[in-house]
């Protein structure tokens, strides 16, 4: 059975979840885990803290992501493995590396795209990138376009304008999930196929499952919960801006509902259908005379738009909603930081974790580039970025990605310094000498290329601008005079000459450490570029490279 609990406040939903979790543990025993499905780590932390604050402890809560839950349930009911983006990507890679498959006329656009690479390395990169994209795309299809995929097994579906794309995608899909496809021997089942094959007589009844914190689900997950709800309880906790029926679209709805309510309206409609329009409400009516409270009440009660404003209601001096305009993103964030401190000084009960800064997803990268430095300069405002695509990774993960990107670049100064000056680099002297190392790169004229060979075929005939010449000059400066002492005689080495960059005796150790880590990186990058290995060996090699350079900068990251 599916039960739905609605509220306009997350706190009310969390309290209801906590009460039901407590009742379930009292009935089933505290040793029986309670399964709670959440969309992200941030929501998981919120649920655990909310339950702990309400009842003193949040024990034996089994937090699951939606896809993990789907995979577990599918395996338990049908015995198969859920086809995920990674497993679909692996099958796509197998097909894209099969010359016989690529020779088929149906995949001619794919063959042309892969063949456009100007070298074997470029071709291989396109294969891997396309396989990754196909894995994500087809996984999304299994969640939201199940009927189309089922029809693909028989015939095309889309309009002629999409025929070229549909032909090769359909052929690729059928090579994976059609009769004799790659998925069957591997025991892989797409989510929409599993739902279609769900048994009428499900297994024995299990404990209630709680679903918390989702703004919306793809259609396949609505169907999955309907299937699971046949043999056990499924309770969904959903935010709704209106306490009454609002599935219909009324012209006189409050402006926020009319402008931004479509996605929420469709989600509520689907949940009501799943629960048979039987739901529990935990709505809280906003109080107070402020403009924000009035708008919230109008939305909650779905108050029709008035033709005229009530002139007797004075809003002079109301600051509950303010619209500010600034010259740049940085200035905007500085105003936010200032407002945070103003609020904290005015209200002694307010805490940093009571404040949220919401960013528009489309412009999030612009804000993320500045928010750390702005909040740090504003007396180190503590903050955490969550649930934004492209938000900062943990330190070790960020450094690992930077290292793995080096073989695909030009070993530029920016890329290399992003690694060797990273807080998580396995070099204890890096953080203390950051400014010094940047100054050395300026003085040495380092821009890109690990050595002079990287500049062959360009206008650069002399050994300039690369890391090798810079590190040679730095090493020479540890025991030879240079420009700083007025010595203008370069050191001759073969056909090249190098002017030493003098290094103070107290900085020699740091210069040696800097040179060692950069030369080690250059050697590893050159080695990675020249290797051809099976996927298993690549995984082991890349893991070894990452472990060589990455360490945790804080106890939390460890």
How would you characterize this protein structure?
With 558 residues, the chain is an alpha/beta fold. The chain folds into four domains: 2-78 and 197-281, Rossmann fold, CATH 3.40.50; 84-189, Orthogonal Bundle (Arc Repressor Mutant, subunit A), CATH 1.10.10.160; 329-377, no CATH class; 395-549, PCRA, domain 4 (Orthogonal Bundle), CATH 1.10.486.10. The protein is 49% helix and 7% strand. The strands form three sheets. A six-stranded parallel beta sheet has the order 3-2-6-7-1-8, with helices on both faces. Helix 1 (10-28) crosses helix 2 and helix 20 (467-476) packs antiparallel against helix 21 (508-530). The radius of gyration is 30 Å and the shape is globular. The model has no long low-confidence stretch (mean pLDDT 88).
What's the layout of helices and strands?
Layout: E1 2-7, H1 10-28, E2 34-37, H2 41-55, E3 61-64, H3 66-78, E4 81-82, H4 85-96, H5 99-102, H6 108-115, H7 120-144, H8 146-152, H9 163-177, E5 188-189, H10 191-196, E6 209-212, H11 219-228, E7 234-239, H12 255-260, H13 262-274, E8 279-281, H14 291-301, H15 329-346, H16 364-377, H17 395-405, H18 413-420, H19 434-444, H20 467-476, E9 491-493, E10 496-498, H21 508-530, H22 535-549
Parallel strand pairs: 1-7, 1-8, 2-3, 2-6, 4-5, 6-7
Antiparallel strand pairs: 9-10
